């Protein structure tokens, strides 16, 4: 994770994609019932090489290329999971998950309920969200739809360590889970525990402590949040940055405690704001601690063009976060002490 | 199943559904009168370790698979003693322990699940197979083709059983689906496919045995289309769209009466035995009703149980 | 709309389904390019008879039964719309719309954008949401997912008059729109304008004036809201009830003004709360008028069983709304004046 | 299109894509080198009033449909002078006014749209037809089958054109799709279907003319599978998975060189004309680059324009 800092002890420096591959590899070694399914996950190793080496080690029975048939890919994953296996189904881009929502939501997420607890479908759907020059139908972030599905968990790591830890946790879950990564995370590297470790789902992480405003984000937007926090610090505003990591369940406790302390909540996301993650985070925090100053930062309400200029105009950046924080703090901003104590607890490479 | 057991099961289904249809305390149900031979013929050929998935019209299949009529009725009436504690109900009842993996009321929504389950069996090196029943309506869905292709390319141990009652709610199959025979849909994938008379339980059982044998031997999936007739409207609360004479002609082709007559003609059954059988079934159904009616509804906290 | 009250002048009393049929019929007469497509919409007249009589009048070319193929039904609607027609695609239950999201979101909603304004897909997808004894995969309300799709409008009438007015408006839109009705609305009757009138999309309606708390709802939950408001009135709490009617665009103005006046906002919905309509309404109102006391009422976070007892346990009812309102008002409730002036401006039959 | 125009268009596509491939300012592109005969053969048979929809690999089809190379290049480079103001870009370029209804980068996502557009033409009583091009990859998607069935049952004026380059990203068609020929997929629906050599522009054009004639005459849809070869990797930034010798063998089968040689052998073209042609095309491509490079990017407010 730690940018240009030297690696921490007992960690190895891995690219995001390597962290995923390592987690899946370890879980496949540990559990012969873990199966990887997806388009071009075999010899090709996945669009971002995040499955590199698995085909060579585990062969075509356990690392399966599929046709372009997202509905069946998810449905097969659900059936395989219900039949005692632990499939990881790779849906290349999150936009295409739309084609597989029926089996995931209507069968997978409801199976435990409708069988009165006798069956379950512990599959992991791994998919890549976000904008990076791929245009209107390959850039969407639809995790907010998933968050409201009872029976379905959702995680979205922002760095290689969490990519590793959460993938391992995901592959040990007892029900269906969607693991969302992001195109812009793959080029990044970070420190990943050397020893086998399993992350905890449902736990947010404070990546930077602050006192004036609480800023939440997940996935790639965590980096934008950290950049914004740094810039705000330069302007004398102390911003606490929380990486949600797990979207369902959501760690309201951690966020609410922070917001309680800072008195202001800013949420940041790349997916559309309307009925989005930020609206939910704000609502839950307010339910916990009462009304508070809150604002949301997200993309413009428009499709994401593959045109890099238009993409950049739509997707939120640190500048917009900074502006939103200042607007939110309003009067208090003027009074903000200069030398707020800033502790970088990690995160963001 | 012996021929007599087959007859018995068909009668059980008919009696069960008839008794259910007159009750007013279950919202509505999707019944299968007229289609009993499909369910019984198929299940006569399935082994105990095999799994069956169905669409929403599932009562016949569930009973043919040997599920306890008492617990099935309790489930359909929403009682805690039901197979799924009264939570699943119509369209979603399941009992995997008995080889009835479950109903699923989303048309076509069981097909890819079945393929995944078949893959699980293949990967586990099991000899048991998976059968998935679906209607003609499901043949318009893309999910069928995605599942057929995957089943073929991976040689999955999966039997596709199309219960072609030639209707989807009010829509005649011929206005909705272009193929001359729905079995043709499997052919491009190289999947062996047959169309059989779904009103003849022995024809269905023979075709099912043949299909299942292919599948069990590891040669990949098979497809069978069973031409059947739905005697009642789409559901117990749906409007009937066919004319009286049309319905009369359809109901004249009763698969149960035909099979009974055949067994009698063949000397495998005598009319006195029929009376005994009918009485025994009536008693069984009455007992199921007593059981279900005496059962408690689920506790309200079941609404939040087994979600995560 | 007006319950047991006598019909208003210049209105006719229609069932909800009749109001839909009348709107579609008038628009089909007016515009030969309006085409109805769906499962059993022809001679059968639709699952709720909401297309009754159309097949007889307009024939099979314009009132088309389709196979069970939701992806293609929506895709064909988009293509037909882009090709100059105005299709109304009926997706029987909203759960099945999941199967048609790809063509609706990825093609239909983005067509105007990606053609730089030269093409558009003015289709109406009409679908029925909500719980009424149909179980886990036939009861879902997923309108919140639709609200965040740029380029897509969403309406959800709560009574026959709006069913009529909004359907007519929908069939004159210049882009794609989803029209959400509800199983429990069909048995209801109400007063519908006798003369041909076209509703306005994007305009909420205050159905009951109040001073202590603003309560928003849409679709069938409006009836629950009105019932709750009546009960609250009996307890001396004056509740302003707003029927959102249009979910996208959302009439934030009307809601915010009301919330400004009452100082408290309660949102009610049948769909899952997480990233739902209420979270959005609250966030937008707070963005407009600053932090305020707000709470959400929705279903329990669980699938909806077809078991009527369990269904009732999950879906929100007036009792829960009353309790939430009292909890929200807290201290103020004790002080609430007894004789709040209550004006029933209409709504709910 | 005359044979010479066909050759010219194939060369134009190749030159356009080659020039594009070496640039670094467009993210990436999906090129069609090796597959030019499919695009040109099909478009040679389409009428001006017909519409063509394609998948994401669309440059060849767009040029073959007669779109202005300057404005196409400007679009792919994200310039305001592009066919869609630089907003659509790769995978989504469209120009319905020229009969190129548009590319759509969701695999299989154009098929049902095309069926709807064909229905619009049918309802409007127009004689023009719709063609939809898609890859072998799209043949695994349920949308194809839903569209085939609807097209057949409604006798839509729609030609399904499968550009079967036998690869989906890295996945060989034979590991992903069970049918012996992808054209077989159309047969259950009673849709006339053919498999043709997609490396032979005249064979493609002949088959396309035949298919389009059937369709235009009101006899419903037709299907053609064109066996082609992709010369480059999936996209300009994607890893190549085939071995060098394999690729060499593939590239030896150039549809352009083959057709050029044929025309020369036939006496329809002399080598001097080839040189002229190549020079003219090079100039055209260079001009396109100049045009695009000189063009302004879109104004940032275009990001919010044309949404509602
Ligand atoms: C995806 C989906 N679309 C629509 C429906 C509504 N529906 C319920 S049963 C049914 C008829 C299906 O016909 P078929 O598959 O032939 O089964 P049958 O009712 O004849 O047994 C339909 C359309 C559904 N349940 N799922
Ligand atoms: C629904 C969907 N799934 C996956 C992808 C990713 N993808 C882009 S192009 C492609 C290959 C498609 O192969 P084919 O249809 O044969 O077209 P070709 O690339 O060979 O021209 C894939 C899988 C996509 N765009 N859409
Ligand atoms: Mg049927
Ligand atoms: Mg291909």
UniProtKB/TrEMBL annotation, chains A, C:
Q: Which SMART domains match?
A: Transket_pyr
Answer yes or no on keyword Protease. no
Could you give a GO molecular-function term held by this entry? Answer: oxidoreductase activity
User: Which InterPro entries does this one have?
Assistant: THDP-binding, Transketo_C/PFOR_II, Transketolase-like_Pyr-bd, Transketolase_C
Q: Which Pfam families match?
A: Transket_pyr (PF02779), Transketolase_C (PF02780)
Keywords of the record, alphabetical order, are: Oxidoreductase, Thiamine pyrophosphate
Needed cofactors, names only, are:
thiamine diphosphate
Record domain Transketolase-like pyrimidine-binding: where: 14-188
Q: Tell me the Gene3D superfamilies matching this sequence.
A: 3.40.50.920, 3.40.50.970
State the protein's name: 2-oxoglutarate dehydrogenase
The organism's taxonomy opens as:
Bacteria, Pseudomonadati, Pseudomonadota, Alphaproteobacteria, Hyphomicrobiales
